[in-house]
Amino acid sequence: MAPRKIIIDTDPGQDDAVAILLALASPVELDVIGITCVAGNVPLHLTTLNARKVCELAGRPDISIFAGCDRPLGRDLVTAEHVHGKTGLDGPTLPEPRMTLQAQHAIDFLIETLRVEPPGTVTICPLGPLTNIAMAFEKAPDIISRVQEIVLMGGAYFEVGNITPAAEFNIFVDPQAAHIVFRSGVPLTVVPLDVTHKALVTKARNDAFRALGTPVGIAVAQMTDFFERFDKEKYGSPGAPLHDPCVTAFLLAPHLFSGRFINVEIETHSELTMGMTVADWWRVTSRPPNTLFLNQIDADGFFDLLTERLAKL
Ligand code: RIB
Ligand code: CA
């Protein structure tokens, strides 16, 4: 069976980096036809730099990487250096990349690719704010029906917010973009904090990364050593939630996850709850379902898969 073509839209970010590494370590199942970068965890010039560092760490300087939007639709950019460090990829010391960015804008790459590839053959994996995706859908609505599916990390229901009391970071940074994507009718699977907060990098799991003894294994362990401070201090948890790699793992092993097909709307008016994913988990409204909203993960199975694949790089 041919590998699934995917475009990863990302704001690396240590967890984004691990999601990219997991995808590149799985060429039988996944063909990464492009990586589009967006401003989020850190400004765009750093997310594009970090994406190139990660691809070179994986030994894949051939991957096409595109710069996208440097700010949300109609709001000021909110970044997360308090979580990811000033570089966005604090932890390991990775060499300056030699690979260059593609000249084409990420939005135009998304549009062109979806128009050229046969309908229903390209999956989009957003790991950051949805600005690039929303802008592509607004500029070229004809591509929406050509997307195979979107599997994104973002939102929360039972876990509520991680950047505000009500909202998860990716959705909060660009609520208008999220509204466009969630209302687009595209086949949508959401990996929210309800899942990722059950995928904690405990010491034993991080030691397993380090024990790989490879540049990738050691770098991932160093990323987690840095990345985990914020969540362990805030939640008192035994490790950092490995958010974005859950998206890649869902594509590789969907049996590790479960959820419900429900309606999810985005708060775009109230500043108090701006960016909240209003998930009709108990189906108390007549709003039509639009999202496979995941809420369970086999965490041991996830980390076994992740460690086994990272060992291949
Ligand atoms: O809320 C977690 C999400 O925000 C992750 O994608 C992390 O990388 C940040 O972008
Ligand atoms: Ca991210």
How would you describe the overall organization of this protein?
The protein is an alpha/beta fold. The chain has one domain (4-310): Ribonucleoside hydrolase-like (Inosine-uridine Nucleoside N-ribohydrolase, Chain A). The chain contains 12 helices and 12 strands. The protein has helices spanning 14-24, 44-57, 81-84, 106-116, 131-139, 169-173, 175-182, 193-196, 203-211, 215-235, 245-252, 299-310; strands spanning 4-10, 30-37, 65-67, 122-126, 147-153, 188-191, 200-201, 240-241, 257-262, 264-266, 277-279, 291-297. The strands form 3 sheets. An 8-stranded mixed β-sheet has the order 3-2-1-4-5-6-12-9, with helices on both faces. A two-stranded antiparallel sheet has the order 7-8. A two-stranded antiparallel sheet has the order 10-11. Helix 2 links the parallel strand 2 and strand 3. The longest helix is centred in the C-terminal third of the chain and has 21 residues, at 215-235. The protein is globular and about 50 Å long. The structure holds alpha-D-ribofuranose (RIB) and calcium ion (CA).
